[in-house]
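Q: Hi! First time doing this. I have a protein sequence and I read that you can turn it into a structure. Is that right? Here it is:
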Amino acid sequence: MKILLLGDFSALHKNLKEGLEALNHEVVLASHGDHWKKIENDIDLNYKSKFLPHNISSRIFPLLDINSLTGFDIIQIINPFFMYRKYFPTKQYLEYICKRNKKSFILGAGDDAFFWQIARKKMKYGPFDDYLKYDLKVEKFFLETQKTMQYNKDILDIVDGLIPIMYEYEVGYKSEYDKPNKIKKVIPIPINTDKIEYHPNKVKDKIVIFHGLNRYGFKGTKYVEEAFEILNKKYPNDLELVIKGNMPLNDYLKLMQRTNIVIDQTNSYSLGVNGVYALAMGKIVLGGAEKESLDSLGVNKSPIINIKPSAKSIIEEIEKILENRDNIESLGYKSRIFAKNVHNYKIVAQRYIDTWQGKR
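A: Yes, that's right. Below is the predicted 3D structure, encoded as C-alpha cells:
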C-alpha cells in the first residue's frame, strides 16, 4: 500500500513509518518535526518566511504542497490540530486531502476536544489543571469550548475512522461520539526496537534517575521536583537525579541511555512515547500503568511502575527500588521484553494495516 502519515508528535509516526516500510509498504511522512525535537520527515511542513508573520505563513505555505499529499491508499492524521492552527484553514485542508485519498484515519493522540472535555470527567486524575496553571498560565483552554468540540466532530465526520493510542483517548471518544463504529480498538505506541540498543541496566557509583523536561505542568514535573528534593537529601550518596529536556530527539535519547530509572509522566493513566523509548532501552520506568490502561492495551501485567501525581508516590517507589537494587538489571530486562512484545514497530504496524483494512 501507499501510505501518507500526516503530522507527528514525539516520533510516533516516525516509528510507525519504519514498521510499515519493514512490511514492504510505501510510506511518506509529512510533519512539522515537532519543532525543537527535529523529528525526521519526508515533507517538512514547518514553513518559515522572512517576509510574512508566522501566523500568516503557517496558513498559506502548507497549501503550496497540498497536491503532494494526495493519491494514497491510506492517509493517517496525527491529530485534528496538527497544523497548530485552531480552525482555519485546517478543516478545509483536511477535507481537500481526505477526498483525494482512498481511505483516511485520524489518531486519538495529543490534545483534542474529546480528551479535554470528556476524558477529563471520566478519569480520577489527569494533566489538565496543572497544564493550565503552569504551561499555558490561563484559566481556560480553547479546547474546552463548544466550538472546538464541534470542529473536532466535523473532522471525525470527514475521516473513515479514529484509532486511539491509549486509554485516555479511547474513554473520551467511546463515551461521547455518536458514531461508535468509527472508533477503533486501541493500538499501542510503536517503537523501533531494532534501532534502539539494549544494554544491561547496571548501576555504577549511583543509581541515575532521569525525568525529561517537556510541558512542565502537563507531565507533572512539579511532583518529580518535590520528590527529587527530598530524595537528594535522604540519599545523596546513592542517587543521581536529573531533570532535563527541550532538546532534539537524538540528544534526548543519548541522555536517557546513561540512566537506570526513567520517570515518564505523573499525570497519566498510560505511558507516553518517551516512556516507551525507555522501556526499549531496558530502563526501569515509572509512569502511567493503571488497570484501565493495561486493559485497553490488551495486557494483563506490565513492568511499568505505576505512579500517581504526588511526590509521595514517586518517593515510595524509588525507595522500594533502593531496597532491592540488586534487581535493577532484571527489571530493566523485563522492560525490554515488554517493549519488544507490545510496542514492537512491526507488530504495531501490522495492527494498523489490519485496522485500516477493517480486519480488527
